[in-house]
Amino acid sequence: MKISVQKGVLADAKSQAIILTLFEESKKLTGLALEIDKLSGGLISDLIGNGDFEGKPSQISVVYTGGTIPAKRIALVGLGKQKEFNLEKLRSAFASVMRHLRNMNVKEAAASINLNLIPGKKEKVVQAAVEGALLGLYQYTPYKTVGREDLKEMKELTIFADLKDYLLVESAVRKARIIADAVYFARDLVSAPSNEMTPSIMAQKARDISRRKNVSCKVLDKERMKEMGMNALLAVASGSNEEPKFIILEYSGSRKKAAPVVLVGKGLTFDSGGISIKPADKMQEMKMDMSGGAAVMGAFIAAADLHIPLNIVALIPSAENLPSGTAFKPGDILKSYSGKTIEILSTDAEGRLLLADALAYASGLKPETIVDVATLTGACVVALGDDVSGMLGTNDKLKKEIYSAAQNTGELVWELPLWENYHELIKSDIADYKNAGNRSAGTITAAAFLSKFVGDYPWVHLDIAGPAWTDKDKPYIPKGASGVAVRLLVEFLLNRVKK
Ligand code: BES
Ligand code: MN
Ligand code: ZN
Questions:
Q1: 375 Cβ closer than 6 Å to some ligand 1 atom
Q2: DSSP for 416-473, written as a single string
């Protein structure tokens, strides 16, 4: 969808539909809604007076203007109670109304955004509305060949802004566009089936990214990883005919010497569990086991496009985990890139093996910080549910930064502890560590394992196993790949600069 910003007032918009937001319990219309109500002969007050529209969160009513104003329809969308209002409600409202209009086959709409919806957050308000609109309209359709003509698409949204706000609105829209595009990128990668999203294809996507200014891409192939001793990663890939790739993206937005922020994303293009094979039921969902890698690549794109003045490295260790005659096995012992040895208890605890080598590589870059993102454990879904990511790490300040970024973007994260006692659970009798504990505290033992490979650098791990994929439509996350953590990481990076 194209988005443009236009100077002027919404009442004059010659549009298929103009969008108006209203709070619940707004007895008296004010501002733009009042103006449009008067012009349209009381259409809006009628709707409210008759109880058809109450302004409940994301409630929608569409009325025809009958030519009283240039626009053909008015689409009202509720924002809920004013005192409960936040950016998340705004994202949801715009997503819902845009989706509603699209499903009515409306192709073009106009809106103006009340910059004072949240005092002191003009730019954030515009950004949230536009991100919501774009994210809610996402559809993954490349494999639909039958009935393509029935696919509906919203083609254009025009945002009307006062002359005095024009520049602010323009720049917030540009930012929202970049961020939403990055989320689309991540969702596309995750939605793609594993036969068409192999490690090699992920690497190619990364090379495409590196056409940007100040960005470079290096891909380590199997031979190179062998020379380097990335045996944990290689073991995971050993059961598959698909070659593993270690993807390195670098963006220099700051002084050459400034230590980089390193983002690491798990890139399992398919996780069958390997010899410790998973049940067949829902196994198809494991094409999404590269969601962390996709999120990191998406955030990296946005960071480069927003010209964030930081040095950023994205590392995506990518492989496919399959059982075969060449696959690694329970009981195997691997010497990881760090030199530490790992006893395999389950080949299905493969993500931490890829990450072990990637995190060790990250710490070799003498980073300022390391953040890794991974669909790491089913236990995290058990502990926190489908909507919340687990957060674990060694540095309180960094955890606070991630937590507050997540609060701003509406991506829920909750901390789990990484106390000393948990480290006992991954000690091996014959090697340094084992790659799985017993059934207890599965998300924590996974993170305890990762912590052995990050050195002393500030590090946070996000387990996105729950929210990476959604089985039901949410207002701005249609069913399927969510692109979770892209916006969170971008917000985190942007906030780092301010300090
Ligand atoms: N990719 C899975 C975790 C996962 C499960 C992600 C469900 C999304 C939804 C991971 O590789 C895995 O299989 N973890 C095991 C670890 C166990 C063997 C210690 C798990 O969670 O069962
Ligand atoms: Mn697994
Ligand atoms: Zn996995």
A1: yes
A2: ----HHHHGGGB-SSSSEES---STTHHHHHHHHHHTTSTTS-EEEEE-TTTTEESS-
- In order of start, what are the domains of the chain with their CATH numbers? 2-160 (3.40.220.10), 183-498 (3.40.630.10)
C-alpha distances (whole Å) from 411 to each of 259, 304, 316, 394, 470 are: 27, 22, 22, 21, 13
Q: Give me ligand 2 centre to Cα 102, in Å.
A: 38
Residue type present at position 11: A
Beta-strand pair 60-64/73-78: antiparallel
Quick check: pTM over 0.90? Answer: yes
Ligand nearest to the CA of 469: 1
Instruction: Name every residue whose Cβ is closer than 8 Å to that of residue 360 and which is 6 or more positions away in sequence.
Output: 336, 337, 338, 453
The pLDDT tens digits of the residues spanning 370-393 come to 999 999 999 999 999 999 999 999
218-265 tens-digit pLDDT: 999 999 999 999 999 999 999 999 999 999 999 999 999 999 999 999
| Maximum CA extent, the chain | 82
